[in-house]
Automatic annotation (TrEMBL):
Superkingdom of this protein's organism: Eukaryota
Mapped ANK repeat ranges: 594-618, 662-694, 698-724
InterPro entries in UniProt: Ankyrin_rpt, Ankyrin_rpt-contain_sf, HET, HetReg/Transcr_Mod
Pfam families named in the record: Ank_2 (PF12796), HET (PF06985)
Keyword annotations: ANK repeat
Domain Heterokaryon incompatibility: start-end pairs: 56-189
PANTHER family registered for this protein in UniProt: ANKYRIN REPEAT DOMAIN-CONTAINING PROTEIN 39 HOMOLOG-RELATED, HETEROKARYON INCOMPATIBILITY DOMAIN-CONTAINING PROTEIN
Protein name: Ankyrin
Length: 724
């Protein structure tokens, strides 16, 4: 007998909402033997019944691999299917009644990328229009024997059997670890459902009862996340099943886009991107029908004719903003971007979400306590909060050797049930000065993650994944990444770790290029290693660098034109200042873009020890003028630092009555600030007590400035000195 020919799909009729349905014919063998699965495909329009449910059932299942060793007949022609789907159809087939089903592997021509993309856009509607959604968990087996029945009994709180008969929690755990619970497409399928039925072999249980049973078992600690870590992601899925009959199934906007309006695409991606899909593009497409925003406006919609790399770039641009600087690498999802460090996670509490406390380092981000949704990768203490250039929402990252892993791509603060409460960023105060390599792993590495949490050295030993190294560049690029990591650690004030990474970068650079080219290693805005360690007071690292013949100790950065001596003086690092001065290769009066010298910065910071070190240098200029025509003595008086004023006066070089561009003297500034001790010292130096400011400043004298500020003791002092 010849074999039936292979089934060939006919194109769907033109129409935005036309689909195929499967008619599963009954087996009419009177002997009770199961005959070959016989089916028919028919074309159907979802518009026929308006908003009412349609009399078909939609199947939610896993393909179970790409191999298709089993065969069914469609319109008397053969169609190969997977083993798992074949088993599901056997259990779904009635003895004497036909059954109308929608099954993706059969109702969509999977070999036609264009049709596949069009039908995937309709899947939220297909499942929401279905009379019910049938969840097929696979055939029963010894290791899950009785699991669904135990869950059913646990759901009945009135039943005495729950307490009298022991629950087989291992069998339940094994059932819940089946592939269906890890698959990303099932989220949309059950989220859209009006009614869910869970099936395993010949056993069926109502979806709502299934969820209640699991809740009961978790509450009684018979099923714990600690004993079964894979269950940690289960609540997000069971919540969708439990609410099947409650939520609005879809909304329609003017563009006829159907969506379940669950959350924004960014939130959905952060929650579910580690779930399984045979095609990586489906990790995005499976979430589009649940998104509350409209990705299609940005051209983000199911399209199986574009590569994963193109789709990834579109997704990142949509989530972070079209102006985000993104470089996506084809073998691993990665982003190269400029960024600004906002803070670091100091603690995390997990309870139906994540309550995150943040140690702030940037005034532009005012939020210290943050309520976040549960994410696919849990936020941990030590994670870094940053803002990528062009993005509107912060990103949470984790240091892993010479790169950063993305934990949450777009962190959105929750306020009650909604995604509100997000503070506005003061972008005018942000400087995107860090070069960040972000690796965004979309796979689920539960065991690896647990081990990383235990290993305190993980941030040091983990390196860029091997499959990225060829695309990221050679050894020099690796050294640059380590140097960038050191800068980020410095932002976080983890100076010990930063110094360690800097040493590593220096060693690597010498190996790659030789010591004579070490000065080339720079961060954003030309910040050299020496400038950085001087700024942060890393004495040992300063000594190490100064011992290199190729290091110029007086090299200015390219943004502020500040030297290592300027940075060290401003930071109050006296030991570093001494080391730099001892080289006899630094210009003590070098000026930056604002006309400030190292001594200016020391005076502004009130660093007496450094001021003494600099004043010991005979070449240092005390009366130089900055870009606003102000001298050091003027700044010291304004700051009210009596000790610094005294140091400068002891040089016998200062002009006590020097006026700035506004006609203000040091005495007027001290009086205005209410600095009584400084006023008294200036009067001892015969400062002009009745000097007036410039006309456009109303000609105010020191007495008037003190009176306006309410500084009565200063007013009395000035009157006693003859002020009128």
């Amino acid at each position: 007998m010849s074999q039936p020919e292979t089934y060939s799909y006919s194109p769907l009729s033109p129409g935005a909402k036309n689909i195929r349905l499967l008619r599963l014919l009954p087996y009419r063998n009177e002997s009770g033997e199961r005959t070959k699965l016989q089916c028919e495909l028919l074309e159907y329009s979802l518009q026929d019944l308006g908003k009412r449910t349609h009399l078909y059932e939609a199947l939610s299942y896993t393909w179970g691999g790409q191999e298709k060793p089993c065969s069914i007949t469609i319109n008397e022609k053969n169609l190969n299917v997977t083993t798992n789907l074949y088993a599901a159809l056997l259990h779904l087939r009635y003895h004497s009644l036909e059954r109308i089903l929608w099954i993706d592997a059969i109702c969509i021509n999977q070999t036609d990328p264009e049709e596949r993309g069009q039908q995937v856009q309709l899947m939220a509607m297909i499942y929401s229009k279905a009379h019910r959604v049938l969840v097929w968990l696979g055939e029963t087996a010894d290791d899950i024997e009785g699991a669904l029945e135990d869950i059913q009994r646990a759901a009945n709180e009135e039943s005495t059997e729950v307490s009298n008969k022991k629950i087989n929690e291992k069998a339940i755990s094994n059932l819940l670890q089946r592939q269906w619970f890890q698959r990303i497409w099932v989220l949309q399928e059950v989220a859209a459902a009006r009614h869910v039925v869970m099936m395993c072999g010949s056993t069926e249980i109502d979806g709502y009862a299934f969820c209640l049973g699991l809740k009961s078992l978790r509450k009684s600690q018979e099923l714990s996340d600690t004993a079964f870590p894979r269950l940690q992601s289960l609540p997000a899925l069971t919540n969708l099943i439990e609410r099947a009959g409650l939520r609005p199934k879809y909304t329609t906007n003017s563009s006829e886009r159907y969506s379940l309006e669950i959350r924004s695409l960014a939130e959905l991606v952060d929650m579910f991107h580690t779930r399984q899909a045979s095609d990586p593009r489906d990790k995005v497409y499976a979430l589009l029908g649940m998104s509350s925003d409209d990705p299609s406006k940005a051209g983000l919609q199911p399209n199986y004719e574009i590569s994963w790399e193109v789709l990834f770039q579109q997704l990142v641009k949509f989530i972070l903003g079209k102006d985000t600087l993104v470089e996506a690498f084809c073998r691993k999802p990665a982003i190269k971007s400029k960024g600004c460090i906002l803070g670091q996670v100091s603690s995390v509490e997990s309870d139906h979400g994540q309550s995150v406390n943040i140690a702030l380092i940037n005034a532009a981000w005012p939020l210290r306590k943050w309520s976040l949704q549960a994410s696919a990768k849990s936020v941990r203490k030590g994670d870094i909060v940053c803002l990528l250039k062009g993005a509107s929402k912060p990103t949470i990252i984790r240091l892993c050797g010479d790169y950063f892993a993305v934990v949450v791509i777009a962190a959105i603060a929750l306020n009650g049930r909604g995604s509100t409460g997000q503070p506005k960023l003061s972008k005018s105060t942000l400087h995107f000065s860090r070069d960040l390599l972000l690796v965004w792993d979309w796979e689920d590495h539960l065991e690896d993650t647990q081990e990383q949490g235990k290993n305190e050295n993980w941030t040091k030993i983990s390196q860029v994944p091997e499959d990225l190294k060829a695309e990221l560049g050679d050894h020099l690029d690796e050294v640059t990444r380590i140097w960038n990591v050191a800068l980020v650690l410095g932002d976080l004030k983890e100076y010990g770790k930063a110094e360690e990474r800097l040493r590593e970068a220096i060693k690597g650079y010498e190996i790659a290029n030789g010591e004579e080219h070490l000065h080339v290693l720079k961060g954003q805005y030309g910040v050299t290693p020496l400038s950085w360690v001087a700024r942060n007071g890393c004495n040992a690292a300063v000594k190490l660098l100064l011992a290199k013949n190729s290091i110029d100790p007086d090299l200015q950065d390219s943004q502020y034109c500040r030297t290592p001596l300027s940075w060290a003086a401003g930071g109050g690092h006296a030991a570093v200042v001494k080391l730099l001065l001892e080289t006899d290769k630094v210009e003590v009066d070098s000026k930056d873009n604002d006309g400030w010298t190292p001594l200016s910065w020391a005076v502004k910071g009130g660093h007496e020890a450094i001021i003494r070190l600099l004043l010991e240098r005979s070449k240092v200029e005390v009366n130089f003028k900055d870009n606003n025509n102000r001298i050091l003595f003027w700044w010291a008086a304004k700051g009210g630092d009596e000790a610094v004023v005294k140091l400068l006066l002891e040089t016998s070089k200062v002009e006590v009555d020097f006026k700035d561009n506004n006609g203000w003297t040091a005495l007027q500034q001290a009086a205005k600030g209410g600095h009584l001790a400084v006023v008294e010292r200036l009067l001892q130096e015969k400062a002009e007590v009745n000097a007036a400011g410039a006309a456009d400043y109303n000609g105010r004298t020191a007495l008037q400035a003190a009176a306006e500020g309410g500084h009565l003791a200063v007013v009395k002092c000035l009157r006693d000195a003859g002020a009128v």
